Amino acid sequence: MYYGSLKKNDVANGPGVRVNLFVSGCTHHCKNCFNEETWNFQFGDLYTDAITDEILEAMKPTYVAGITFLGGEPMEIANRKEVLKIAERIHQLYPYKTIWCYSGYLTEELLASAGMWSADRVPSLQDVPRNKNIDCSSPVADAEDLSKLLSLIDVLVDGEFVDEKRNLMLKFRGSENQRLVDLKRTIAEEKIVLWE
C-alpha cells in the first residue's frame, strides 16, 4: 500500500484532534475530487511498519481523540489488509480512541461484501450514486478481513463525493448524499444508524 500523507494534528476529519492517514488508490474518480492525485495506487510513498510506529506515537497524547483513514480509498481491495493491520494495532493500544474512515462505498455495499448483510439490502444504482465496479451479490475473497476491519471502525463517512450536492456547511463531509454512519451500532442493530 502507498500513502499520500500523514497528518498528526487535524481537526477537520472527525471530532477532536485526530491523526489522519491518506492512503493512495481510488477507483471512484468523483468529479472535482479534492484529492485527485491519490487516485493513483502508487502516489506518494510506500507504507512501512515505521509509519505505523509513527502513527502510534502521534496518538499517545491524551488530547488526540483518534485516527481517521482517508484517501484515495481505504476500502479498496489493495488497501484493506494494511488498513486492517493498522486499525488492529490502534485498537489494541488505544481502545478508548475512535477510528473513523471515509469511503466512497456505501455502508450497505461493504457489509454485503463482507458477508455481514444480504445483497438485497444494497440500494439500487438508480437510488444513490455508487461505484459501479462493486458486486455485492456474494461476499468477496477477503470477506473475513473486511468484516474485521468494519467491526473496528466507529464511524464510516460513506458515499461518493457528488459535486452537484456539494455543501460547505456540512459537518465532516463534502456532499449532501454522504452519511456519518455509526458503524458499531449499525452492525449491532442490523440497520443504518447515523452518528449524531
- Counting DSSP E segments of at least 2 residues, the number of strands comes to 7
Q: Compute the gyration radius: what is it?
A: 16 Å
The CA-CA distance between the termini, in Å, is 32 Å
In percent, how much strand structure appears in the residues?
15-25%
User: Strand sequence of the main sheet, in spatial order?
Assistant: 3-1-2-4-5-6-7
Share of helical residues:
25-40%
Largest sheet: 7 strands, mixed
- Which assembly state applies to the chains in this document? single chain
Uncertain spans, ≥5 residues at pLDDT below 50? none
How confident overall, as mean pLDDT?
90
SSE succession: EEEHEHEHHEEH
Q: What is the SS-derived class?
A: alpha/beta
User: How many helical elements?
Assistant: 5
Which overall shape is indicated by the principal axes computed on the Cα atoms?
globular
Describe the structure.
The protein is α/β, with parallel strands linked by helices and 196 residues long. The protein is 26% helix and 20% strand. It is built from 5 helices and 7 strands; from the N terminus they run E-E-E-H-E-H-E-H-H-E-E-H. It has a 7-stranded mixed beta sheet with strand order 3-1-2-4-5-6-7. Strand 4 (64-70), helix 2 and strand 5 form a beta-alpha-beta unit. The longest helix is centred in the middle third of the chain and has 17 residues, at 77-93. The radius of gyration is 16 Å and the shape is globular.
